[in-house]
Specification:
With 915 residues, the protein is α+β, with helices and mostly antiparallel strands. The chain has 19 helices and 39 strands. Helix 17 runs antiparallel to helix 18.
């Protein structure tokens, strides 16, 4: 299935690499540089060297976007060198003024039991230190406000030291009350879902509310505690849309962070979600003119009004009154001539902000249900933050990625009564209903022959019934703040900024590099020669292009945000958004890895945020979480779930583990565990069932390839092994490594292998034949195999892998001499595979092989410059800056090759080689 639509052929003959243009260091200097690289690893340049991590020095930390105005609490991960920090070691976090109260826990272990990754939580506070350091040590600092969790008769009572919430174990309510200073600020926090039976003009609408089935205290600590709630949405006839909600409480926080996930398990032809949201009640005690509504706007703007406004009246209520109301303060007594007439001034009880596209939001209000709406304001992109309350307290609320994941909405209802109701809509009820049906009817493709013809013309892998959304998911991040009084305007702006970009601490790139937790395949940026600078500049240019494409092409929306497109259509000056398998990328050829290695080496916030959005999307929307395909992902398609190729190469943990370890995110951890036994689906959903000339499955439960299947499974198992030490998954990895190494031609026998899910055993299905596939090394195999070799020290597996790396791009004559026959793979990804040649050169300290790798990276002809062309006028709807030949496959593989070649054989790069 991995090779759908690709024509196979033999690589052309190629002479031994000729001497490259430019100055080369001699062989002795190259060996010295690469030995240094292997030890640290540092690539071939002393300028890019990172000091080996000493655990006593700890890890330097910095905020992604710079020191924030405040933090509502944060969690971050830190790596440690192998064997350096023992299990159970406590940690200290230091700031400019000394030790900072923190909470630490393990995320992963090295095979010797030492700590590989640890997570750390800091409580809430204003103006945190710009830089911090975490190091092994005995904690002494204690949080001024500690998180407490106690069990009650029917659930939990949890508090941050500032606010307290009551969480029942059963029923429709997630949180019964959020209290501050002994008063209820919010009540009855619950979920709501609206469903129509038709996509347009529903004949029947149903409303579902949350029903809690299970509450688990996942973490109970003085700085951070986590409660996990699981349930379904229910009405009187039906329970569906399973959800998971996590409540995060941080010491000293005025807020509660809520991570909400739902999985679609309906019938896409009958169930059309009209709205899904989180709703809660806000008790109101103040006079109508002392009640306030706030919505954040763009660029620090704020829409701020009273429920009953005292400005603009015919009679003057008093300058101090107007000033107090505008500032959100309690008003002094109103002028005597105005006070008796206040009941004639309308009270606006209902207010809504709806963001139905990436480029427009509307605020409207009305006095109450049954009365007409009045448009209040328009804007472009709302941060997704609002407030309702008064001088005696209220609630601020925010939804992350608000405009990016449109259609969204913030509603306030009944603010003129004793109890207002606020709803954070993750899907706006003002928008058309969610329509998750397959985008075409399969006419002409409803036979096996038709399905294969579809691959030939539109790259569409269609199979009836496979393009289903049943089992896809989406997670949303919501925060609720409980205030004793209406916050000042500037404070609301700070909250809105924190909603859109929650403050995140990250370790310094040099520290991560020195620990070798992600192997030896990356280095720090180095522009010490013209050739290095040219490659670094193009790495930056390619990322900047895609970052701008997200905006230029509006790759936004509830189900779409975080993904990028697959292939460009230069004739239409647009991506092939409507052409079968050329539309959404769905992790094809590892753009996820390109982004994360780019972040590791640079520490750039914009790269992290794009990678974060991609993890949230690909792990949720492109992966099945329940049903027939649970644990598998969907190949690239017009719809994220549309392709009938359901494969582990999309759902694999290799794309998620960076984000998990850098943030300690529990939801990502859940997803990586969901896919652990995805190999048991490979019989029922055979990944190569449509490919011609495949060896019969024979006596084996399944057949797989080493790259698109086994390497993806290994990434899942390796991640679990280092997280939990589970020997079952370690043993499955080791069994497969031994079996591949024992095959006559190692990985060249591994394009199709018999597979036993119970044991992880692999079996040669092609005898002494030689075969390779150009896709086998481009879904994380290169990266995960480097880690396996380092972790296990399996010399036989390493020899087999190095042979594959050296010979894949080798001249046909050399393949025939070494293997007995050419391996038959196409040269479609020739430049990307230069990093395999580089890996072999680095491991063997082979200067000639390193030279060959750089020539392969340069391509078979003069490389096309990665430069944009401006297109305007009637050829396009809107002016665009395009790279006419761009494809995400090429970009991701070029980027990974550039990063890895620089790290492994940078010393062999001519000073002036074109890049």
């Amino acid at each position: 299935m991995a090779a759908h639509g690709e024509r196979r052929g033999r690589p052309r003959g190629r002479a031994r690499a000729r001497e490259p243009v430019g100055a080369l260091m001699d062989r002795r200097d190259f060996f010295r540089a690469t030995t240094l690289a292997a030890a640290l690893p540092l690539g071939g340049s002393a300028r890019a060297a990172a000091t080996p991590a000493r655990p006593t020095d700890g890890a330097a930390l910095a905020w992604l976007e710079g020191a924030p105005a405040f933090s509502a609490g944060t969690t971050f991960g830190v790596p440690w060198p192998r064997g350096a920090v023992r299990k159970g070691q406590p940690f200290v976090v230091d700031g400019a003024a000394g030790e900072v109260p923190a909470q630490s826990w393990p995320l992963a272990y090295w095979p010797d039991g030492s700590l590989k990754w640890t997570a750390h939580a800091l409580g809430a506070g204003g103006r945190p230190d710009a830089t911090l350091r975490v190091r092994p040590g005995t904690r002494r600092a204690r949080a001024h406000h500690a998180v407490t969790v106690r069990r009650s008769a029917d659930g939990f009572v949890a508090g941050t030291g500032v606010v307290e919430c009551t969480v029942p174990a059963r029923g429709p309510v997630l949180v019964t009350a959020i209290r501050r200073a002994g008063r209820d600020i919010a009540r009855n926090v619950r979920l709501v879902a609206l469903c129509d039976d038709q996509p347009e003009g529903a004949a029947r609408r149903a409303e579902f509310v949350s029903e809690i089935g299970k509450v688990t205290l996942e973490q109970d600590g003085p700085v951070r505690s986590v409660l996990k709630l699981e349930g379904r949405h229910r009405d009187k006839d039906r329970a569906w849309l399973p959800f998971t909600v996590r409540l995060y409480l941080y010491a000293g926080a005025e807020s509660i962070r809520i991570m909400h996930t739902f999985v679609f398990d309906g019938d896409e032809n009958k169930d059309f979600i009209r709205g899904i949201g989180l709703t809660f009640d806000v008790p109101l005690r103040d006079e109508l003119h002392d009640r306030h509504v706030r919505f954040a706007g763009e660029d620090g703007g704020l829409w701020a009004e009273g429920v009953r406004n005292l400005t603009g009246l015919r009679r003057e209520p008093g300058a101090d009154v107007r000033r107090a109301q505008l500032g959100g303060e309690r008003c002094p007594p109103v002028a005597e001539k105005v006070a008796p007439l206040l009941h004639l001034v309308p009270a606006w009880g209902d207010v809504s902000l709806s963001q139905l596209s990436a480029d427009s939001f509307r605020i409207r209000k009305r006095t109450k249900t049954g009365c007409g709406w009045v448009d209040s304001a328009w804007g472009r992109r709302a941060p997704g933050c609002g407030y309702v309350g008064g001088a005696s307290g209220g609630v601020a609320f925010g939804l992350r990625d608000f405009w990016q994941r449109h259609p969204t909405q913030l509603d306030i209802r009944d603010a003129h009564t004793d109890t207002a109701r606020a709803t954070v809509w993750m899907w706006s009820p003002d928008a058309p209903a969610m329509d998750l049906r397959f985008y075409h009817d399969g006419m002409g493709m409803d036979t096996h022959a038709g399905e294969l013809q579809g691959l030939e013309i539109t790259y569409e892998d269609y199979e009836q019934g496979f393009g289903t959304p049943v089992g896809v998911a989406r997670s949303s991040e919501i925060t609720l703040w409980a205030f004793e009084a209406t916050p000042p305007r500037a404070r609301m702006v700070e909250i809105a900024q924190a909603v859109q970009a929650p403050p995140q601490l990250v370790p310094a790139p040099a520290h991560i590099l020195a620990t070798q937790v992600f192997g030896a395949l990356w280095s720090l940026p180095d522009r010490s020669t013209p050739a290095r600078a040219a490659i670094e500049d193009q790495l930056d240019a390619r990322f900047d292009f895609y970052r701008k494409e997200v905006e230029q092409r509006r790759w936004y929306g509830f189900w779409d945000y975080g993904d990028i497109r697959h292939t460009y259509d230069a004739d239409r000056h647009d991506w092939r958004y409507d052409v079968g398998g050329f539309a959404w990328d769905n992790s094809e050829l590892s753009p996820d890895l390109w982004l994360w290695y780019s972040f590791l080496r640079t520490g750039r916030a914009d790269i992290f945020r794009m990678g974060e959005a991609m993890v949230r999307h690909t792990s949720e929307v492109d992966t099945y979480h329940l049903g027939r395909f649970a644990g598998l992902g969907s190949r690239h398609n017009v719809q994220h779930w549309g392709c009938s190729a359901k494969q582990v190469r999309i759902s694999t943990a290799v794309y998620r583990r960076f984000y998990y370890y850098l943030t300690g995110d529990e939801r990502t951890g859940d997803i990586m565990r969901e896919v652990l036994d995805a190999d048991r689906k490979l019989d029922a959903v055979d990944p190569v069932r449509k490919l011609a000339n495949q060896p019969p499955k024979g006596p084996y439960p399944a057949r797989i390839s080493f790259g698109t299947d086994w390497a993806s499974l290994v990434a899942n198992w390796l991640t679990e092994w280092e997280r939990s030490g589970n020997p079952r998954y370690r043993d499955k990895i080791l069994a497969g490594m031994r079996d591949i190494a024992a095959m006559p031609h190692g990985f060249f026998n591994g394009d199709r292998m018999g597979y036993e899910p119970d044991t992880g055993r692999l079996h040669n299905m092609i005898g002494s034949d030689v075969k390779a596939l150009h896709l086998n090394a481009v879904f994380g195999a290169v990266e995960i195999f480097d880690e396996l070799i380092r972790l296990t020290g399996d010399a036989a597996f390493e020899r087999a892998w190095l042979e594959y790396c050296e010979l894949f791009n080798a001249p046909v004559e050399e393949q025939r001499r070494r293997l007995g026959a050419p391996h038959g793979a196409t040269h479609a990804l020739y430049v990307g595979h230069s990093r395999l040649t580089a890996y072999a050169a680095w491991k063997r300290q082979d200067l000639e092989l390193a030279r060959r790798a750089w020539q392969e990276f340069a391509g078979e002809g003069k490389q096309r410059p990665f430069r944009t062309v401006h297109v305007a006028g009637p050829d396009v709807l809107n002016p665009v800056d395009e790279v006419p030949w761009v494809s995400t496959n090429e970009t991701a593989q070029w980027g990974l090759a550039a990063i890895q070649n620089l790290a492994l054989i940078g010393a062999a790069l001519p000073r002036t080689q074109e890049s």
